[in-house]
Amino acid sequence: MGQDVLIEEIVPGAEKLPDFRGESSWVVAKEKLPELMTSLKAMGFTYLVDLTAVDHHGTDPRFEVVYELCNLRHKKHIRIKTKVGEGDAVPTVSNIWRTADWHEREAWDMVGVRFANHPDLRRILMWDGYPHHPLRKDFPLEGLPTEMPDIAFTSKAPLEGGPFVTSSASFTQDREPRAHPAEEGSV
Amino acid sequence: MSTTTLEFGDTLARTAECEDVGEKLVLNIGPSHPSTHGVLRLVLELDGEVITKVDTDVGYLHRGDEKIAENMTWNQFVPYTDRLDYMAPLANNVAYACAVEKLMGFELPPRAKVTRVICCELARISAHLLGLGAFAMDVGAMTMFLYTFTEREKIYNLIELLTGARFTTSFTRVGGQTRDIPPGFLEGVTEFCTQFPGRLDEFGSMLNRNRIFVDRTKDLGVIPADIALDYGLTGPNLRGSGNPYDVRRTFPYLDYQTYDFEVPVGSTGDCYDRFAVRMEEMRQSILILRQAVAKMPGGAWQVHDPKNVLPAKDKVLTKMEELIHQFLVVTQGPDAPVGEIYFGAENPKGELGFYLNSRGGGVPYRLKIRAPSFCNLSILNHLLPGHTVSDVPAILGSFDFVMGECDR
């Protein structure tokens, strides 16, 4: 209970979400984030467990950034969320917890949320110069072609709607989805 | 001609005086290199032999697991968790199933919980054995790898008996396991617990007073406890630095609070401490395994919720109702409520967490995997400068990371 009061004190506008499965979440405006996070760390939330972004495609603001924090001494877990529109940026927390550096790079790479004042906001899992953000809801599962001829797998993967989908051909070689069509003469 | 002795710990201090002397060399290690345990790539900037700057490049094993998860039912994702930390697939299965069960609000029956504890601890021993063997091989002790693989083979046999597969187990389902523990399994675990500690002592005696091993690991790659937590390190890498955070203790799941075990911590946070913590964790896992076998309760081994949990196979084949439920659960998936949860489990590599965001129905809206190896590796850019190139394999070996999990 004490936690609720404290977060209310630090950020007057913080909105508490209903508890779900024993977890407490707050939504705060992104402008208040650096102030709140600095205070939370000073209060003992020294462990940033996870940072991720969710694409709520079709709503405004479109993205939500989720921070999972732990206070190891008091065995307390809280979740802070903030909303951000497309093309907008969230203040970085990598100056508060250094683990946020890579997490924010991943959120930028996968979902395309920008983090203001991040020291090195490059892609981390996809390659430099990749034009899309794969975890956006408008990015299709089978992928999109890119104009990088030197890198393998730049064309669409033949998943045909799902990884387990197979066609009803009579020969095994026609039935199974393949990354590359079998070379002539090899069968 | 005078000679000076170089201590490993001095290298950090030497970087400052090495500044602006001569030309710097950029050296690329990986993505395919024996010491990078998979496909990690390091771009090192060297001044002579001392590293001055590091750029850690991950992502070579990125398969888009989180995207794939959004397009399948909760149970269909279980085989993908095998391939996260593929040294301990059973532990990943358990962590994932527990996360979805937290979302569903399931309370597992006691037998399922104890079964899962056995799974986790067997996986932990197996993963630590491989980590230990690979670490020793990285610093020049080939024999160790062969010895630890002999022991892993025994664990694999147990896992095969339990799940039917040796490597990609896919054992758990939302609300339980694929099957109950088979006859003879608990006896096998007991037998393993009897003979393993002696073998572990042998392994220890091969390394912990081995001059070459100790010289190459002691006071090397020192991580202070606060820096370790700041970078999100978990598991033996964090505890090696002296922080006792263990998810099994701090946020107990599967009734871990009812087991009697110690959480070993290191004192200096060097490569040797991380090795020592893993050695002791295996002993503690044996203690937990013994307690789990002793208290294995009877009764149900999956949650009773016919609409969301797969029914027993013999009933599916003979009863109409169960056949319908089987069809519903398989095609539409367990019907999860709207909401979001985070669940972290203590895996061999550290805290494996799942953030699940559900809009209801059988498919996750967003599934984020908090991979311990990803966070553990993020410290390399900070840690490696000041060390020499020959220290890199030892430090990487002591981290015991898996790229399948890091890149997802």
| Rg on CA atoms of chain A, Å | 21 Å
Strand order of the largest sheet of chain A: 1-2-5-4-3
- Mean pLDDT of chain A equals 78
What is the tally of beta strands of chain B? 8
Shape of chain A: globular
**Strand-pairing-aware structural class of chain A:** alpha/beta
* Measured distance between first and last alpha carbons of chain B: 54 Å
Write down how many β-strands of chain A occur, each being a DSSP E stretch of 2 or more residues: 7
Spatial shape of chain B: globular
Figure out the total of helices of chain A: 4
For the largest beta sheet of chain B, what order do the strands appear in spatially? 1-2-3
Which assembly state applies to the chains in this document? Answer: heterodimer
Helix content of chain B: 40-55%
Which protein chains make the most extensive interface, counting residues with beta carbons within 8 Å of the other chain's beta carbons?
A-B, 38 and 41 residues
- Listing every helix as H and every strand as E from the N terminus to the C terminus, the arrangement of chain B reads HEEEHHHHHEEHHHHHHHHEEEHHHH
The main sheet of chain A comes to:
5 strands, mixed
Query: How much beta of chain B, percentage-wise?
Result: 5-15%
